[in-house]
Design a protein that fits this description.
There is one protein chain. With 497 residues, the chain is an alpha/beta fold. The chain is built from 18 helices and 20 strands. The chain has an eight-stranded mixed β-barrel with strand order 10-11-14-15-16-17-18-19. β6 and β7 form a beta hairpin. α3 runs antiparallel to α4 (118-135) and α4 runs antiparallel to α5 (160-175). The longest helix is centred in the N-terminal third of the chain and has 48 residues, at 21-68. It is elongated, with a radius of gyration of 40 Å. It starts with a strand and ends with a helix. 30% of the residues are buried.
Amino acid sequence: EAPIKLNERKIGSIRLRVETKSLYLGLGRFSVGLLMIAAISLLFGRIASRKIRRRIAEAEAALQHMALVDRVTGLCNRYAFEHELARVVALHARDGLGSALLFIDVDNFKKVNDLYGHQNGDGVLREIADRLRGSLRRGDVIARIGGDEFAVILVNTHEPRAIAHIAATLNEVAARPFMIDDVPVHVGFSIGIAIIPDDGDSAERLLNDADLAIDKATQAGKGSYEFFSPQFGAKVYQRNQIEVALRHPVSRDELEVVYQPQVDLCSGEMIGLEALVRWRRPEVGLVSPDEFISVAEESGLIVEIGRAILVRVCRDIRDLRGEGWLVPSVAVNVSARQLRMGDFRLDCERTLAEFGLQPCDIELELTESVLMDRIESQRDFLDRLLESGFRIAIDDFGTGYSSLSYLRHLKADKLKIDRSFIQTLPDDADSVAITAAIIDMAHAIGLKVLAEGVENDAQLACLQANACDYIQGYKIGKPMVIDELRGFLKPASRSAS
């Protein structure tokens, strides 16, 4: 209550009365509203949080799946397989038992991709994965660890006979055709086998051992399997030593060239020579071409070696002719890597011109496998070589595709029958029949035929009876160094007279 005054005189009073019930009621409603908003927000927050956590978990699972599973086949990938292999190795280190590692290489798969496309190639890979799953136990580990490479762990299976039986079964499974647009396509498996833990105490070592076994299986023939042997490692070491040493023989003049005569069967006249390379390695001695040529080819050193041999041959021809000897054309072996060089023909022409020679003085020997590699481009390439004047010979015929049908599309001058057929003449009826057929068919398409590796009179008589054109071998002359060759050549003046 408060007084009301006028001219300092109280004339009345005023009393204020406040009602707080509505205020508290308003405050109550506001508090309830805040609580409801908070509860609703919390509910929605929990729902949103749960969705986010679920999506994160799904994303993590997807990432883990991508990290561990091959996208094409649905099998384990290399990372997951190596992890599982390490686990199995550690397990057997404790329990004393064993398992087997199978490294599988799909033969001819590159041709599937090239002929039918990568989409159909992926379909074949998926079918291979399905066949592996259907042929192995549920507890075995199956993975795709590369483009056309698969791997298997046969868990708790280490008895060689059982492993060999499984490998043979897988080869049978792979031999069944794969259908692409109703066309049967054939591939196969080459399988390398390593025993866990006998052949290695780590995943890396075991994979390397199985890979070495695959190389051995591939050499034995497609569709085969091979167990790892410690000798494989020794051969790899020896190969690496050869590759290291091969980087110096050209500069150190360690390579030698020997010449073997080629003779006309009718006239008995020498119609050519083949240049053969030898490597005299310091402190080791003479190294067989069988030991180092394949290493040089794989490492790419064959290009430098091939160029050095051509230079040596051209120099020898020039020098011998300068001394007055009649020197026929000389055959030089050419590798696939040399042919892939874009300037191979021009390089040969420049080398010949440097020594005053013509392309017809050199015969280029190419194997079947080299010719069949990208046959269309090879045909154009051979045409250009022939137009330039080079002679072309197809070497080692019978060891590769063994088909004369493709020769109709490839121009050449001469066909050389591989020595493996000649060695068994005339006792082996099959070799006689094959040799006769090759000669007849080659003559039908205008090719001369040379038989290499002729060593005795019986082989010579058999080849004469089947109208072979030329022969080469120890029967008429061994490979000779240039000093020995001088005694085999005729003076050019005598030929002119």
